[in-house]
Amino acid sequence: MAERLLKFVSIDPQTPEKRPADQRTADFHEIYGEFITQKANEQASRCSQCGVPFCQSGCPLQNNIPDWLKMTAEGRLEEAYALSSATNSMPEICGRICPQDRLCEGACVIEQSGHGAVTIGAVERYITENAWQNGWIKPIVPPVERQEHVGIVGAGPAGLAAAEALRNKGYQVTIYDRYDRAGGLLIYGIPGFKLEKDVVGRRIAHLEASGVRFVLNYEIGRDGKLADLRAAHDSVLIAIGVYQARALPCPGSSGPGVVEALDYLTASNRVGLGDTVAAFAAGTLNAAGKRVVVIGGGDTAMDCVRTAVRQGAAKVTCLYRRDRANMPGSAREVANAEDEGVVFEWLAAPKAVRSNDQGVTAVVAARMRLGEADASGRQSPEEVAGADFDVPADLVIKALGFDPEPVPTLFGEPELKVSRWGTIRADAITGETSIPNVYAAGDIVRGASLVVWAIKDGREAAEHIHTSLRKQARLRAQAAKVAAQ
């Protein structure tokens, strides 16, 4: 039954039911259930249908949120999915892992009015799950098959989004990836309790059925160079993300018992997928029974602390040098972690890692306070003299963010220009790099960021690749015509 709109005054915001903490920490399944139709329609009906929809401007993809909320409230789900997927290559994934509290829902007008945001992410997930269940998502059949080939390096969100957009236009697309499964961080970085892997696998299978070819276990530098891909394809897109972990600059930070966040999360995800991981079996990348300290305050740190809880850690502590209000991670993820028993030490920064013959014993932390604002406008943390304290630890996980790998060296392409941060220099509008017909998108250009930004970048790069290839085709046709005269 269709719902009337503008019900935000009479209906409170509500998310799908969340499993109790003591149940959800026993497995790696997603913690939120699905909306039933009545609740999805009801929550969608809370939308105020703003003339200037701030939710849309708060979304990197500029999703037409008010329109598909209206369609959902009216029971027009197939139309809602068509509109949602017109701007988003993976709405079911964004609905699960986007930090909506910092994006669309945070910008929602009725959130600002004090009535609580429309639960946009949950409705987006509901729309797409219904589309899968009802068979509305079909393999891509482009209106014309083009002869041009595009090679994409990286099967993460930017590469997958670009592949879908290019197949829609009829290009032949091959994706190369260093891992044995496609998906990038969607598979190996993000834990199953936020994004179950069959959700990603379903999207990969859709692209394969649409004609996208995947070449896995292929690493540029080991199995070929960028020059090889340029010779094999009419255009190349680099979408490899950033994987080089930032160092922890304190004594003892490189010893046994101190591990990188991505190594830890990848091992956990591989085990969940049924792989045998030697470092996990040996206990190096397994938190079971250990006192775990995670250093960092972003979403990766939240993934690590919540994974450690599920692995059976004796205690999990997160050290972050600023306070809760300045934490870069999602507020919802912090709240979920607290519900699950994680202890947060706010305004605390590591000074050293203590060890003995058996391994790590503690992290020495300095108590911090917030001082003057830095160039970004955030208050800079300052150490409080004489306020050091020890946090007992058997496993320390460094979750301090990621930097690019040395791409020109790895790719055997010194002409590929990079910024002073190591990210690939690409035209701000087209995404083209210093090498003609080679484009770049996602984190390898903008630095470590959100999945939704990678999707946006991949889609835009695909559009500019299309424009460039069509121009080149016209020029070839004109030259052939002149030569024939």
Q: What fraction, in percent, of the residue positions are helical?
A: 25-40%
Which sheet architecture does the biggest sheet show?
Answer: 5 strands, parallel
Strand content range: 15-25%
Corresponding CATH architecture of the largest domain = 3-Layer(bba) Sandwich
Number of strands: 16
Ends distance: 66 Å
Quick tags:
single chain, about 475 residues, alpha/beta, Fumarate Reductase Iron-sulfur Protein, Chain B, domain 2, FAD/NAD(P)-binding domain, 3 domains, 5-stranded parallel beta sheet, 20 helices, 16 strands
Question: What can you see in these coordinates?
Answer:
By secondary structure, this protein is of the alpha/beta class. The chain folds into three domains: 21-133, Fumarate Reductase Iron-sulfur Protein, Chain B, domain 2 (Orthogonal Bundle), CATH 1.10.1060.10; 149-242 and 404-481, FAD/NAD(P)-binding domain (3-Layer(bba) Sandwich); 247-400, FAD/NAD(P)-binding domain. It is built from 20 helices and 16 strands. The strands form four sheets. Strands 3-2-1-4-16 form a five-stranded parallel sheet, with helices on both faces. A five-stranded parallel sheet has the order 6-14-7-8-9. Strands 10, 11, 12 and 13 form a four-stranded antiparallel sheet that branches. Strand 7, helix 16 and strand 8 (315-319) form a beta-alpha-beta unit. The longest helix is centred in the last third of the chain and has 34 residues, at 451-484.
